[in-house]
Amino acid sequence: MGCESINQRICVVEKHVNVNNSEFQTANASVLPKAPPEIRRVLEDARRHLGNPIAMLDTSYNLLAHTDNPIADDPLWNELIGSGTFSDETVNYFNRSQFIRSVAESEVTVLLRDESQKYDRICGKFFDNNGVQLGDIVAVACEKPFSDGDFDYITALCERISKAIDSHDTFKIVERVFFDRFISDMLNETDPGKIRKAWEDAGYRETFGPYIFAAVADISQYDPTITSIAYLRDKCASAQPEYAYFIYLNNIVILIGRDTETLSVNRDMCALDDYFRRHSIFAGVSGAFQSPFQFRSYYKKALTALNRGMNHPCGINIFNSESFGAEGLLNAAGAVVEPREMCNPILLQMQEYDKTHGTLYLSTVGAYLKSGKKKRLACEQLKIARDGLNRRLAEAEAKFEIDLDDGNLMASLLISLKILERQAG
Q1: What ranges in 60-171 are assigned the alpha helix state H?
Q2: How many Å apart are CA 187 and CA 181, to the nearest integer?
Q3: By three-state DSSP, how is residue 360 classified?
Q4: pLDDT tens across 196-242, in order?
Q5: Which of 24, 118, 266, 366 is the most buried (most CB within 10 A)?
Q6: What's the pLDDT band for 184 if we cut at 50, 70, 90?
Q7: Dist. CA 205–CA 191, nearest whole Å
Q8: What is the model's pLDDT at position 325?
């Protein structure tokens, strides 16, 4: 950026806005790691050069590092330092005062001025090596006014931090702040535009193949006093580096990109499976999805598979949401329950009725479901006409009081069919 006058870059807000800082939000330090010592030393050097305090935030306003304690007459700084973030009320103030818009429209650095605030601020952006913004550097002119040289110095400071993140493994912790936050945004955000933006900002359209699987790994069996969850996340990434790893709550979330709709634990997750077995880590894996708007539901599928698997231990550590109930237990040596006990009782009733009366309801319903409810394919498999198929399906619905358009029931019947087929041979 050039050396134009600082007055040409000032964001002046005419409307007077009062900010209520009577309550601080609780800091999110337990989830978001702080900046490493090397970054803090860079900020301290900048503090001495500028003669004003500096803070480093991620893109969600979570504090990563700062140079000074609270400043008596600067409520925005005090809220950030005191709570580790900004309250919703303060963020709304940023929107009303155009602070957020001004920062978003700047290339790297912008000076922010508002008559409701005693001190001016300079805000600069830092990025990862893919050009994704990871956060902001903010300096507050509480000890001396800014000069043109200060503005350009902060621009250079942001470039220095961005290069350091790219070139030194120690600074990767800052990237993790951004990407760990990504899981929370994808699960909790309701605005479709913001969901798509979070997905695209993270670069996953280019990183992964057309199909993505979500995995949730539980580490509760691993003694947390021995090692941290961040350490375990890094060890997982070392074991199978081609996937993306995140910390969310007390779990490790893994995103797996594939070129096909199928995922084999033995083939595609072999290194992770081995590591999980050795360290008593369990995981549930979802089926394949393609849209960022499906992330929340498939995350829940992975979590459901994990919980079901841990409630029915069967000698495996990674549970697939699509096959765990039907095949995972049957594949494991010494299944802990009789397979028929896992079947939907309606399907067992069909099986017994067919044996007693010589009917073919089970095979008919089975062919219809396994064909994806495509009647032409079901007719070809059963070698009957469409009228015959329709008659049998209608009789089955009436006799066993089922609705073949009920998605939950159909999923249960399909799983039960797989169990019966495996048991038969």
Answers
A1: 75-83, 88-96, 99-105, 148-167
A2: 10
A3: coil
A4: 887 876 665 555 667 889 999 987 776 554 556 767 877 888 888 88
A5: 366
A6: confident
A7: 19
A8: 45
Nearest to 202 by CA among 136, 107, 133, 259: 133
Report DSSP state, residue 248: E
Residue carrying structure tokens 């900048």 = 46
The tokens for 140 are 């507050």
- What tokens does 345 get? 């009782």
The pTM of this model reads 0.43
C-alpha span between 83 and 91 (Å, rounded): 14
Single-letter amino acid, residue 76: L
**What is the torsional sign of CA 402, 408, 412, 417?**
positive
The identity of residue 262, as a single letter, is T
Which DSSP string corresponds to 269-317? Answer: SHHHHHHHHHHT-EEEEEEEE-SGGGHHHHHHHHHHHHHHHHHS--S-S
Domain 208-331 part of CATH 3.30.70.270? yes
pLDDT confidence tier of residue 150, bands split at 50, 70 and 90? very high
- What is the Cα–Cα distance from 240 to 66, expressed in whole angstroms? 35
Domain boundaries, the chain: 6-170, 208-331, 339-424
Indicate the CATH number for domain 6-170.
3.30.450.40
Nearest-angstrom CA–CA distance, 242 and 357:
55
Helices (DSSP H) in 168-290: which residue ranges?
A: 172-188, 192-201, 204-207, 229-239, 265-268, 270-279
Question: Under 8 Å CB-to-CB from 285, ≥6 apart: which residues?
Answer: 213, 214, 215, 256, 263, 265, 269, 302, 305, 318, 319, 320, 321
- Determine the Cα–Cα distance for residues 103 and 249; give it in Å rounded to an integer: 30
Token readout for 261 is 């709709």
Residue 264, pLDDT > 50, answer yes
**DSSP 8-state assignment for residue 15:** S
Output the CA–CA distances (angstroms, integers) from residue 200 to 157, 172, 285, 291, 294, in the order listed: 27, 20, 23, 11, 14
C-alpha Rg value of the chain to the nearest Å: 29
Residue 266 pLDDT more than 90?
Answer: no
In degrees to the nearest 10, what's the CA dihedral of 313, 315, 320, 322?
-70
Edge-first strand order for the sheet with 318-320 is 244-248, 251-258, 211-218, 282-289, 318-320
What pairing do the DSSP bridges indicate for beta strands 318-320 and 282-289? parallel
Q: Which range among 50-54, 150-154, 164-168, 418-422 shows the weakest confidence by mean pLDDT? A: 164-168
